[in-house]
Amino acid sequence: MLRLRRPRPAAWDTIVEAACCGSPEVYWSAQQVIVQAGRAAAPYADRLAARLDGLLRGTEDYLIADLAVALAGVGDVRAMAGLHRLAAQERLWRDCSHLSPALAALPAAELLPLLRRELGADPAAAENAPALAVLSAWGSEAAPALPEVTACLEGPYAYDAARVLGRIGPPAAAAAGRLAEYATGAGRPPGPYGPDARGTWHGVRMAAWAHYRVTGDGSLALRRYAADLGSGLGSRVLPYLADFGPAAARHTGAVRALMDSPGAWTRVAAAHAWWRITGDPEPAVPVLLAAVDPEWDGHIAYPTPRAVRHLGEIGAPAAAAEPVLTRLLERGTRLGHPWQRIRILADDAFSRTLTKALAGLGPRSPA
């Protein structure tokens, strides 16, 4: 299951049987797979839910997190009873911190009350990072958590909180003043170096972007990014300039120059920003295509998934990418990295990225 991208359906039968059989010795062999099952667990949801319910009525807590996450991965609200038990035992993020994508599949209305309680208990807690990651994935649906997210702006996870606020958008406008302070350097959140630390806070660009998203006024952010471009920090602002699109047209010269950067991540970000700002795919597509490694095995040092996503966004003008994307999608084995804990999740996410990109390119060419 960890090695094959398309295991036989009977393999999932075996995994679910191991998860529900009641034998700890058998269960541990399936534990690493069941928590990453995602949509593959959908046909087995009733059985998993019944097993979880039985555990909640008994004393065997060691399986609850895994079964709850498996149900969450298919958006099944029957996971909530298990998640509430974990939270009551202060185990929610100890057991599930690396599985935020699975929890984000739950309906926001069901999970939000629990996340709000977790965030509200201590805005500076280390457990807030995965909770904020779930809220960020929900975007505007996370708006009911605005009081708790805004409070996190005053703690060590201000960067993550700013991202959530930006994705919520205009309903978070009340936080604009604080975001502006952080973006301009007039203030900074507490952190490992204290509020009086020298140097610029690492989240100033995120705060500027969030300010733009909650207010609709991009002038502050564009001034921030222009200063970075002028001081040799252009690679750090490229994703934000891409979000501005044509409104960042005055920076096309700097963006175009960064497409020749020695760093692959910078080249990919610059190519995407160029296309988003100008609408011209001609210089961007070769740069993005060159960044797609046909043998990519999941190593996070290389920007292959990002390049794939951007090629799909460009669409038909990037049709030359079809053969390499098809080759990557049709491989029989999963990504080799990371092996531990999230290998299936990472491979499934990459497969979805490839599938979506190929759809964006248009009709497949005949074999």
Oligomer: single chain
Please mark out the parts with pLDDT under 50 across 5 or more consecutive residues, or reply none.
none
Query: SSE order, as H and E?
Result: HHHHHHHHHHHHHHHHHHHHH
Backbone CA Rg = 22 Å
Structural class: mainly alpha
**Major β-sheet profile:** none
Q: How many separate structural domains? A: 3
Helix proportion of residues, in percent?
A: 55-70%
Tell me what portion of residues adopts beta-strand conformation.
under 5%
Distance between the ends? 29 Å
Morphology call: globular
Counted by DSSP, the helix tally is 21
Number of strands: 0
Summed over residues and divided by their number, the pLDDT gives a mean of: 93
Question: Could you outline the blueprint of secondary structure elements for this entry?
Answer:
Blueprint: H1 9-20, H2 24-34, H3 45-57, H4 64-72, H5 80-88, H6 92-96, H7 100-103, H8 108-121, H9 128-138, H10 146-152, H11 158-168, H12 176-184, H13 204-215, H14 219-230, H15 238-244, H16 252-258, H17 264-278, H18 284-290, H19 304-314, H20 322-330, H21 343-361
